[in-house]
Specification:
CATH class: Alpha Beta
Number of domains: 1
Number of helices: 2
CATH architecture: Alpha-Beta Complex
Order of helices and strands: EEEEHEEEEEH
Helix content: 10-25%
Radius of gyration: 14 Å
Strand order of the largest sheet: 4-1-7-6
Shape: globular
Largest sheet: 4 strands, mixed
Number of strands: 9
Distance between the termini: 40 Å
Structural class: alpha+beta
Length: about 140
């Protein structure tokens, strides 16, 4: 039986780059967000996770679903599949890493190999829509 890992992610694109975060103890960057707890809605999960990870408050009234992606996670046992429901939203506050995040960075399309397969699907759609630039450059 395939395990489904159900996640929600915040898509923040500025100047042709997307915000990504690397959790403490991991060497992979992800689109910020995480797994729902209990019966949380997508929006409740999104607001909680982004506050926990990046110390900003998302504006729930501005949240907009931009797509849901699914991909196999080859590194996980049992053939796990990750589902990532993606939302944009405005925020208040200053982006800063929390105790659970080691580093945040702004990635262009050239950085696509640095994120997991499900995140790569989002990168592809953003590039096709002209929102994500290709040049390699300084992250950060």
């Amino acid at each position: 039986m395939t395990v489904l890992i159900d996640t929600v992610a915040w898509v923040r694109v500025e100047n042709g780059r997307i915000l990504c975060a690397r959790p403490r103890g991991k060497d992979v960057f992800y689109i910020p967000g995480g797994k729902r707890e209990g019966a949380e809605s997508d929006l409740e999960t999104l607001l909680r996770e982004i506050k926990e990870e990046l110390t900003v408050l998302l504006d729930p009234d501005s949240a907009l679903h931009v797509g849901t992606y699914e991909a196999d996670m080859p590194d996980l046992p049992g053939g796990a599949v990750v589902r990532m429901s993606c939302y944009t939203a405005d925020y208040r506050g200053s982006l800063a890493v929390s105790s659970e995040i080691e580093e945040m960075a702004w990635f262009s399309y050239a950085d696509r190999p640095l994120v997991p397969p499900v995140d790569q699907l989002l990168f592809d759609d953003l590039k096709a829509a002209g929102e994500l630039g290709c040049p390699r450059g300084r992250r950060g």
